[in-house]
């Protein structure tokens, strides 16, 4: 009676077969890439990403396990997220804490992906414009 229903976790929703394993592997791969790209910005993001990834791929949770999202959200907010990353991230963290399920963390992951794409595109535009001036 004290566990999060398996249907409220990503592996529980996708089953225990190949699809679930691929989804878990995809979450891990995305987090590794995101952490690698933000490696120079401090330790806050890697810790927050690791906590979120571990909850997303967990197949068994207790409601109190979701409380680890409080420090994860605090660490992530210290990275000063902007725009859509902030909106999706806060929505995902609040929903995950309120519903005591990790599934809304997919919104957090989406926000990080949007932000990472924006950062990468911004860097490539800046580097492209500076090389054209040379």
Would you mind describing this structure in some detail?
The structure is a single chain. The protein has 134 residues and is an all-alpha fold. Helix content is 70%, strand content 0%. It is built from six helices and no strands. α2 packs across α6 (105-133). The longest helix is centred in the C-terminal third of the chain and has 29 residues, at 105-133. The protein starts with 9 loop residues before the first helix and ends with a helix. The model is unreliable at 129-134 (pLDDT under 50).
Oligomerization status of the protein chains: single chain
Shape: globular
What is the percent of helical residues? over 70%
- Class by SSE composition: mainly alpha
Q: Evaluate the radius of gyration.
A: 16 Å
Q: What is the number of E strands?
A: 0
State the helix count. Answer: 6
Distance between the amino and carboxyl termini: 66 Å
Low-confidence stretches: 129-134
* SSE order: HHHHHH
The average pLDDT value, as a whole number, equals 83
Residue fraction in strands: under 5%
Largest sheet: none
């Amino acid at each position: 009676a004290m566990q999060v229903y398996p249907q409220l976790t990503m592996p529980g929703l996708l089953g225990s077969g190949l699809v679930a394993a691929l989804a878990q592997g995809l979450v891990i791969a995305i987090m590794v890439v995101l952490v690698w790209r933000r490696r120079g910005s401090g330790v806050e993001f890697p810790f927050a990403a690791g906590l979120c990834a571990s909850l997303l791929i967990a197949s068994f949770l207790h409601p109190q396990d979701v409380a680890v999202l409080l420090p994860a959200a605090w660490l992530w907010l210290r990275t000063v997220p902007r725009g859509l990353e902030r909106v999706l991230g806060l929505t995902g963290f609040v929903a995950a804490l309120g519903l005591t399920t990790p599934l809304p963390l997919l919104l957090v992951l989406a926000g990080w992906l949007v932000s990472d794409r924006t950062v990468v595109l911004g860097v490539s535009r800046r580097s492209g414009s500076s090389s054209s001036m040379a």
